[in-house]
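Record format v2
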Amino acid sequence: MLIMVDSKYSNIVLGYNDELIWKHLKHLCLQTVTSEQIEHLHRRFKQLSGDQPTIRKEHFDNIPDLEFNPIRSKIVHAFFDKRNLRQESDGLADEINFEDFLTIMSYFRPIEMNMNEEQLDHFRKEKLKFLFHMYDSDHDGKITLQEYRNVVEELLSGNPHLEKESARSIADGAMMEAASICVGQMEPDQVYEGITFEDFLKMWQGIDIETKMHVRFLNMETIAQCH
Amino acid sequence: MPESCLQIAVGVLVGAIIFGTDHKSPPVMNTNIYFLYLLPPIVLKEGYFMPTRPFFENIGSILWWSVLGALLNAFGIGLSLYAICQIEAFGLTDVDLLQNLLFGSMISAVDPVAALAVFEEASVNEQLYMMIFGESLLNDGITVVLYNIFIAFSQMHRYEEIEPVDVLAGFARFFVVGLGGVLFGIVFGFVSAFMTRFTQNISSIEPLLVFMFSYLSYLSAETLYISGILAMTACAVTMKKYVEENVSQNSYTTIKYFMKMLSSVSETLIFVFMGVSTVGKNHEWNWAFVSFTLLFCLVWRAISVFALFYISNKFRTYPFTVKDQLIISYSGFRGASSFSLAFLLHASLFPRKKMFITATLVVIYFTVFIQGITIGPLVKYLDVKKTNKKESINEEVHMRLMDHLKVGTEDICGHWGHYQLRDKFKKFDNKYLKKILIRKNEPKSSIVSLYKKLEIRQAIEMAESGMISSAGSTASFQSNRNRRVHRPSPEEVESMRDMLAHNLYQVRQRAPSYNRYTLATETSEKQAKEILIRHQNSLQQSLRKGHSLPWGRPVPASTKHLHYFSLPHGSSHPVRRKTRSDIFTGDYGSDSDHVVSAMFSSQRRLRSLESKQQHKEIIPMAQLNRRAEPSDFTAQTGSSSKLDRSATIRRPALMPKPQFGTAVMRGYESDEEEKAAAAASRQSVKRATEKRDVHFHKAQRRK
C-alpha cells in the first residue's frame, strides 16, 4: 500500500518525530486522505479539544448542530469505541488522540476507482463493521432484539408524535426480516438469537454501501462553531 | 419498441390517408395551440412525477450537463452547419448564420422519454436515470428560451444591426428567463399548496386547484416573457409534496391519472401530427443538409457528453463510467419538441423552412426508430450497473442511520457538506413550511410508513396463504395457530358486536338487511371469498410489481373501489384489534353477506368507472370449493376481519408512488378517519407486537 506523506504533515503534528509518523500512518492506511485534508482535520481536532492533544467525550458537547442529531450518543460512542480504533481490547476509550480521530475518519472516505476486488471487499467490510459496532452496543458480536429496538427508538426519537410501541414493533419486524434473510424459513421451534456480523454482511449484500457511506471532504474553511 | 414509434406510425398512416384523399395536410397545429395547449401537460407531468431526492442529490451534475449540453449542442450543430452551408456545391448559401444557429437550437431539443422507458425496464442505476431524466426536464425549457432569443434576433430585419450589446443582452436574458421562471414557479407552488390546506370540505376542487395553478404559473410566466416551462416544472415540484399531504384520496388519484392522461394525449397528438406532415408537400429534400444535420447531431452529442462528463467527473465522488457516458450519448432521441419548433417557424423569415422540417423529421425518425429500438439491447449488452432497490425495513432503518451518521460526522468535522444542506432544509421545512402548508401536520417518519406498508403486505400475504392452505389444512395447523393466537373473550366479543352494530349502519342502509340465520350462505359467501381473493391477488401483484423503480407505475384499477369502503366516523377500534388473529385463522363470517352487499352497492356506484376488473367481480364467479369453514368463530369476528382487511387493503392503494426517500402514507379521507386509522394502525401494531412478543418470548424462554 502506497503511503503518501507530505512534509507539511510533519510540521503540523506537534510533538511527534518522523519515525513515529511513519508507524502511525502505516496503521491508518491513509492512502486516500491527502495532506490537505489531514491539515484540515487537525485544525478541527485542535478546535474541538481546545488545543489539547486528546479529546474526551465532553468535547463533543460543544458542537451545537450535533445536539439535534437523534443518534448523537451512538456517534460519539463510535468515536471512542475501541473496536473501531483497531485496538485489541474491548470497551470504550476515555480519550482519543489525533491518530485515533483520523482512524475513525478513514472509515468515511470514498472509494478510489483504481481499487481492485480484494481491496474493495476489504473496504466494504470495514465500513460495515463500523456500522455493526454502532448497533451492537454491548460488544458481544451480535445485534440482539433489544439492541435493535434501542437503535430504532433513537432514530425515531426526534419525532414526538410517534409512540414507543411503533418503534418496538418496527424493530421486531426488522428482526424478523433479518431472520428470514439470514436463516431462511424458520421452524416454529427455532430460535433466532441475534444478527451476527456474517448475517449483517448478508443483509447488505445487494446494496452498495461503499457508495453511500462517505463524507465528502470539501476544501472549505473550518467553521468556528465550537463555543 | 418505444411507444413513440407506434404513435408516429399511426400518424403516418393517417397522413397517408389524408394525403391520398385530400392532397393537402390539414393545418391543425399552430404556435398558439402548441405552446398553450399541447406543451404544458407534458411539462407538468414530467415535473410532477419527478423523484425529488435523487434529483437534488445529483443536481450539480444534472444542471451542468443539461444547460451546458444544450448550449454546446445548439451552437456546435449550428456553427458546423453554417460551415457546411458556406460550401457552394450544396446550394445552401442563402442559409445564414442566424438561421443555422436557430436550427441548431431547435434540433438540439432532446426528448428522451423513450430512453427513460428503456432504462426503467432495465433497472439501470439511479445516477444514470437521473441524468437523462434531468436532461429531459430542463432541456425543453432551455431550448425554447434559446429558440425565442434567436427568433427575436432574426426579427431584427438586418442582422448587421445585431451588436455585441444585443448578444450580451441575449445571454442575460437567458439567465433571467431561466431563473425567473424557477422562482415564479416556486411561488405559485407554495400558493397552491397553501390553498389546498383549506379544501377539506370541498375536495372536488382540489384537482382543479392543482391543474389551474400550474397552468396559471405557465401562462403568467409566458406573459412576462420568462420561461413558462421552467416555471411550471418548479411549481409542480414544489407543490407536490405539500399537496399530496393535504389532498383527499380521490383527488390524489384523479390528479395523478388525469395528468398522465393529458400528457399522453398531447404527446400522441403531436406525434400523430408529425406523422401526418411527413406525408405531404411540406418537404424540400437537400441531401447535404439533411445528412450533415444527422451526422452533426450524433457527433456533437457524443462530444458534449464526453467533454462535459469528463469535467464533472472530477467533482463527483462517484464518476460516471465510460459505459454510462456511452449510453447517455446514445440516448439523444429527438421528438415532439424539435418538430413543433421547426413547424412553427415563420415561412417569411425562413425561406428554407421546408428544408428544416425535412431535416428535423429525418433526425427524429432516425433517433426514434433506429436508436430507440437498439438502445434496449445496447443497455443489456453493455451490462450497465443496475440499481438494487429492495424494500425492506432493515434497509430503511440502516439508510436512516447512515444519513444521521453522515450528518453527525460532518458536524464533527466541521464541514458543510451536501447532507448538511439537505438536513438543514428538512429542518426548515418541518419547522415552518409544513406547518403553514399542510393541513394536519403530523410528521410521518418514512421508517414508520414503510413499516406499515410492509406490515399490510405481510398481512395480505399471510391471509392469502392462510386461506389457500386452509383448504387443505389439517387440524394441527389450526391448533398451531390457536396456540399462538389470543382468543377473544366473551366480553370483547360483546363489545365488538356493539361496535359493529353501530358502525355497520351505513353499510346496511344500502342493502336489505340479512340475517345470518335466515339466509342461505352458500353462494354469496363463496362469491365474497372469491371477490376478496381476487382483490388480494391483484393487490399483491401490484405491490410486488410496483417496486423496482416505481416511477409512474399506475395503480391497478381494482384498488379503486376499495376506497369506497368509507368507514364511518369513530369506527371500530375493537374491530380492528382482531386483525391478526382473524386473518390467521382464516375466519369468514356469514356476515360476509353484509360485506358482499356493501361491495355490490359500491360497485353500483362505480359503474361509471367501468374498469375491466370490476366487470370480473360483478359477474358471479364459478363456484369454488372453499373449505375454510371455521369451526369456532362468531359472526362479528368474521365480518370484522373482512371489513378490517378491506380497510387495511385500502391503504396500499397508493403504494406504487414515485417517491424515493419519503414514502408518505396516504389514504386518509378525513380527519376522523385519519384518527380512526391511526388508532387502528396503533392497534394493529399492538397486535403485531404482541404476536411477535409471543414469538420472541418463546425464543427467549427456550434459551
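Chain A has two domains: 7-115+211-223, 117-209.
Chain A has ten helices and four strands.
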